[in-house]
Amino acid sequence: EMDPQERAFQERIDAGIKIEPKDWMPEGYRKTLIRQISQHAHSEIVGQLPEGNWITRAPTLERKAILLAKVQDEAGHGLYLYCAAETLGVSRDQLTEQLLSGKAKYSSIFNYPTLTWADIGAIGWLVDGAAIMNQVPLQRCSFGPYSRAMIRVCKEESFHQRQGYDIMMKLCQGTPEQKAMAQDALNRWWWPSLMMFGPSDAESVHSAQSMAWKIKLNSNDELRQKFVDQTVPQAEYLGLTVPDPDLKWNEDKGGYDYGEIDWAEFFEVIKGNGPCNRERMAARVKAHEDGAWFREGLMAHAEKQAERRRN
Ligand code: ACO
After folding, report:
1. Counting atoms of ligand 1 from 1, which one is nearest the CA of 127?
2. Which of 105, 109, 140, 276 to mutate to test the pocket of ligand 1 (most atoms within 8 A of CB)?
3. Residue segments in the chain with a per-residue pLDDT below the cut of 50
4. How far apart are CA 69 and CA 87, in angstroms?
5. Residues facing residue 256 across a β-bridge
6. For residues 160 and 141, what is the distance between their CA atoms, to the nearest angstrom?
7. pTM above 0.90, yes or no
8. Per-residue CA distances from 178 to 50, 82, 129, 167 (Å)
9. Is 270 in the pocket of ligand 1 (CB under 6 A)?
10. Residue 175 phi/psi, 5° resolution?
């Protein structure tokens, strides 16, 4: 039995009315949003690391400038999303602490290494492609600040996706070695990209409630299917082979059937045992510690200013 306040809240959601920070909301709604938005923010922040790894080694000055801008965009998305989470009554410091202590999750995808330049192409094409597939519907989610943040984020993600595909195009039109490098990157990033959408609908603990609250607009499997259907023709256009022997067009459903995802790998990665989890966390912790003098300096300055105003 739903209490009247909760029923009124659900009716607003069903009517497509946005919920704003000062509106009444069930504690579960608030908690779910803080969890999802902060995990999303952490993903953007940690997501800078695999690509940052290639900034000094980009093959041309132009590629370097583009990659630098893209990685800066990811930092911006992270800060933007932390602000959206803060409207729900949690502080940036608390969220940072949850990330650095290993309590909060961030996307599984950022625990894989970037071994060659082609990985930067594959990340833009596949990882940002998957991110857009998931985030475009979130522009219509029920929480105002999150939905509005997604508008700008999606515009920038589209640029990221195109720059990644452009790298793949160049490599695929290049020497046989370059094309092989592109194929190798697709081989390694394909399955982890499918895992970004989360566990299967049967295993997804939060989906039903989050969809009722319009914190999620589509299920994990729905978005994963849309991603496969969109991406396979793009791989064909590049002349690359998707590393899935079971991939097959299914006329009846008007989409591709694809092979079984290695869920054991997925759950290992989100438990902290992926190829780069420890390295990623160590890099974030070090960055935070290295920044301590700066935070202290800011505080000292703010105190001095306040002191001056008092006198
Ligand atoms: N990586 C890490 N953790 C994941 C992933 C993943 N790919 N997919 C699911 N999980 C976690 C969930 O966070 C949840 O953990 P928790 O209960 O400890 O918080 C658990 O696995 C169960 O999964 P679901 O019940 O399906 O969780 P949820 O309903 O939150 O769906 C999803 C997961 C689809 C990622 C959702 O949170 C979402 O849409 N988030 C916003 C988008 C986002 O975060 N994108 C980040 C990558 S894109 C980028 O940064 C470029």
Report:
1. 51
2. 105
3. none
4. 28
5. 249
6. 23
7. yes
8. 20, 39, 22, 11
9. yes
10. -75, 165
